[in-house]
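Loading example: each entry is read as two labelled lines plus one structure line.
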Amino acid sequence: MSYKERITRAAELMRDADIGALLLTKPANLLYFTGASQLCAYAIVSREGEVALGVPFIDLDDVSRRAHFDQITGFNDEVSMLHSISHLFHRFGLERARIGLEYAFLTKSREAMFTHPHSLPPDATSVDATPLVSELRMVKEEEEIELLKGAGRVAQAGIAAAIKAARPGASEIEVAAEAEHAMRMAGAESFYHTYVASGPRTKVAHGYPTYRVIEENDLVTVDLHPVCHGYSGDLCRTFCAGTPTGTQRKALELLLSAQQDAIWKAREGVGVRELEEAMHAPVKAAGLGEHLFGPPIHGVGIEFEEAPLPSGHAYFHGEGDPPPLRSNTVLAVGNCGLYMDDFGVRVEDTVVVTATEPVVLTDYARKLF
Amino acid sequence: MSYKERITRAAELMRDADIGALLLTKPANLLYFTGASQLCAYAIVSREGEVALGVPFIDLDDVSRRAHFDQITGFNDEVSMLHSISHLFHRFGLERARIGLEYAFLTKSREAMFTHPHSLPPDATSVDATPLVSELRMVKEEEEIELLKGAGRVAQAGIAAAIKAARPGASEIEVAAEAEHAMRMAGAESFYHTYVASGPRTKVAHGYPTYRVIEENDLVTVDLHPVCHGYSGDLCRTFCAGTPTGTQRKALELLLSAQQDAIWKAREGVGVRELEEAMHAPVKAAGLGEHLFGPPIHGVGIEFEEAPLPSGHAYFHGEGDPPPLRSNTVLAVGNCGLYMDDFGVRVEDTVVVTATEPVVLTDYARKLF
């Protein structure tokens, strides 16, 4: 990975935005800039391109082996962490600087901790660093795309296991068990929440698995988010534990056709809103527009949901409206479902934007009934 | 569960704190007050004891079946969610009220969304609701303790599977796979991150599993957090894939003796700091105080880490210093490790505080070497 280049580009953006340094604590951002993703740790990235890491003192050996940085500090507890940050702010001459914080990651309580006079010098101010970091992370390096491909393959192993397990008599939780086990054995170092929803529960926005037992002919929606070598996959499929109804078949066909339209249009220069419209148009034309729910497009990378975010979501996550797509942006296409009276269907794939044809990283069969 | 009683008590605390209503979006708090835990949903709890829920419109059927509330609204997207909140604030006469928000859960970006004039009336103000909700959730009802017992049993099934899997040649990720699969099959509807750290990695603060392959005689630390029927378990064990060294044996014995002292002292009226000191004292007496890391005590309930939080952590999570323990507070005891030059040991159990002897909910063998 080009950590040096990432830091150099971050420093350029900091100069443009009059930001003196970034104070990062979000594990995904620590991974991006230093190669090591840690809880309860921080990185200060200065506008001169220096990186100072702070970690629990017992992590010093482990992080020193794995991470890229110019200097590292070990701390004993939260108070000594704040003191070490304050010390670094003075060392970097940031007494009057604007410090970039992760407003879309820090809770209000934790933000208060970093803007407290114990850490932030009295004449320094804070500013949201979210758009700056997203600007960098949005376009992937080739090596990142290789890792995203790997995560896509692991997600496919998970879906295959879920389909095999989702027989009448099995609970949603048991289906999740098999999908997660298969992803782990295929190389998932972690995963975000697994969604397994069956029968009437396919009509919910976030279908965490429950004790519900799958019945003959139930639809089942499974959405998986494995993480491999720090990069995420995002893959959703809806299938049937038996024979679907004609209405269910038609709904899946309509949604699939909409999703394929959106995937095909995902190219350099196109806007996220255009992709959203591409996904909505066939469903609206069929008179079912009011049965759609969810923003159809979001970015995928270190996080399974990251910039570019859909415009509604973007605002709530500290991002601006996404710019036209650039090559090597990676998207999940299909993060919206078609929800009828008593069931829902949803299909989602991870796709690399290029100047020509989009490259689909999760190519498991979609038309499963 | 006594949802009605919880709401009544919340209303009393709101009157004491001059809070007009709570606006809750944290899934754990939605579960506590309504019985349904949802992402992208909100509950307004008024000081008159009324509960208004807002959910994605496709979730209306599902949530109406499961949740306790006085009224429910479906929304299409974030903007219509904010409008529905604003409408409810006016309906409840909260134009000039102090509204309790979850400062320890809301990111700064999302907090800005709820304090935006589109949702919060111009003369209303916001205040942190975290301590108020923690005050209620900290003492468990009998039914909650039964569920926590169940989660403890599931954690034990996970540890047993991990110990069986952690043979030389297996990767940390494979050990996590078996622990998680066993927890799912024993009834875990979800789990927080699984920690599996082996060999030199036992000396890290947050040991997420990696591709590292376990070697003969490695120590292995596994920390599990299953969720069953909405309630969490917290169980950590350190064991050996072979024969430990004398130093390792001594470290485990010392830590176990310290943990048992702290568990034995966990009774009504005792302070969290006293328990911390009980856990630190034998280690300090052995001259190894500077090898301890991590706050030894935290609460367990709907979340695997909740109030009472250790004093350092409490500040950063919007909580005050914890009051003396009350009966039916549930604690994890042992959330600190003893970290030597090239290994660490950690042992953690979930314990119910009573007026007399503490009740340990995770009673898997501790002296594993």
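Residues 334 and 348 of chain A are 4 Å apart (CA to CA).
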